[in-house]
Design goal:
Number of helices: 8
Number of strands: 17
Order of helices and strands: EEHEHEEEEEEEEEHEHEHHHEEEH
Strand content: 25-35%
Mean pLDDT: 92
Helix content: 10-25%
Low-confidence stretches: none
Radius of gyration: 24 Å
Structural class: alpha+beta
Length: about 375
């Protein structure tokens, strides 16, 4: 919820807003359009309250709602799916038609409560200023569905389910590590689920390991099962060798957040490279960048990844409407990057990531 500065004697009414924060990718005739979205919309249709919270969700510190929070909380009546369609229409009006495919990646869906109080008019309790004209004489916000909050924050103990050791991870990490029994864990329901992982070993120094999702998937409508197929569909400047057909194609997706344009570029480059180094299931003795993009979001990105390298786009993009990508298996893989002054580099993949891109990604 948003903080308030209302007078002590005022009865607060908390109005709900759906908030969507994430990346939107659109495949159009001229390529892939991308943008970062942070938008909000009423979760209860009302002409008396503002349509959104504007920039407040970004500028003000948000607090969790607890059972002890004083005030009347209106119950959301507008489904988020309907609000999402409003967002899509709002952000798609400027796109040239046709739009062959759209994906929301790395999104965070949340419900934000904004404080108000009634004193002849509806007052914004953040600024203590009226937000609407005179109200009907019989207006009573407490007659709308709602009440006191009846939920509480649930915590999961960060102890390794396998050995009982303390799990480690940065505050924004979606995967926790047990260095005692060499295991990785991710939240699942009310507990933790073990996650298969691997890394590319190296003897280099001054390293950081970045996480990627290594995904095997079936793709309909087009032939993309081997490296030979990849060379053809991406029109790579190399002759197809006999052994290329024996190398299975795998998607590589980022397991960390970056800006949309960087996200597409990195996923495309590493997928086209198809790393073949030996993988080992050992935690490397080096810095590990946190996993901030879950496997579910990585799977959502596969069609965009495919669209980024298949050629010719004008001929193949219309097929995106019919293409279905069905994941078969996945593995979390840490790839070592050498730290330089301004960037992290992986010479074998001809890949470089600016340090600031990773540092600023915590706000995405």
């Amino acid at each position: 919820m948003l903080p308030h500065a209302a007078p002590e004697n005022k009865d607060l009414v908390f109005f709900p807003y759906w908030r969507f924060k994430g990346m939107l990718f659109s495949c159009i005739e001229n390529g892939i359009e991308h943008r970062f979205m942070d938008a909000s919309h009423q979760a209860v249709e009302s002409r008396y309250f503002p349509i959104s919270v504007g920039l407040r969700s970004q500028a003000l510190k948000l607090n969790f709602v607890t059972q002890e929070t004083r005030g009347y909380f209106l119950k959301p009546t507008l489904p988020f799916k309907e609000v999402m369609r409003i967002f899509e229409r709002r952000f798609s009006t400027s796109l040239p038609k046709p739009v062959y495919h759209q994906s929301h990646i790395g999104e965070t869906l949340s419900l934000i409560y904004s404080p108000f109080y009634v004193n002849g008019k509806i007052y914004d309790a953040v600024l203590n200023k009226p937000v609407a004209s005179e109200l009907p004489d019989d207006f009573d916000a407490t007659l709308l569905a709602g009440g006191r909050p009846d939920w509480r924050i649930q915590f999961i103990p960060t102890l390794c389910p396998s050995c009982g050791w303390d799990l480690h991870g940065r505050r924004d990490s979606l995967v926790l590590i047990c260095k005692n029994c060499n295991s990785f864990w991710r939240p699942s329901g009310n507990g933790l689920k073990r996650l298969k992982f691997a890394c590319i070993p190296t003897k280099e120094e001054n390293l950081i390991y970045l996480p990627f999702w290594h995904i095997k998937a079936d793709i309909s409508e087009i032939a993309l099962r081997s490296y030979a197929d990849l060379v053809k569909i991406a029109n790579l400047p190399k002759a197809v060798q006999k052994n290329f057909s024996d190398i299975g194609f795998r998607f590589w997706a980022l397991a960390f957040k970056v800006r949309p344009q960087v996200f597409v570029r990195l996923a495309r480059k590493i997928t086209l490279s198809q790393p073949q180094e030996k993988l080992v299931s050992e935690i490397p003795d080096a810095r590990l960048h946190p996993v901030t993009l879950p496997i579910e979001e990585a799977l959502e990105s596969l069609t965009i990844n495919l669209a980024s390298f298949m050629k010719p786009q004008r001929e193949l993009f219309p097929k995106l409407r019919d293409i279905t990508i069905t994941p078969q298996s996945y593995l979390l893989v840490y790839i070592p990057f050498i730290e330089k002054h301004h960037e992290f580099i992986r010479p074998e993949l001809n890949l470089a990531i600016n340090k600031n891109q990773l540092a600023l990604a915590s706000n995405l």
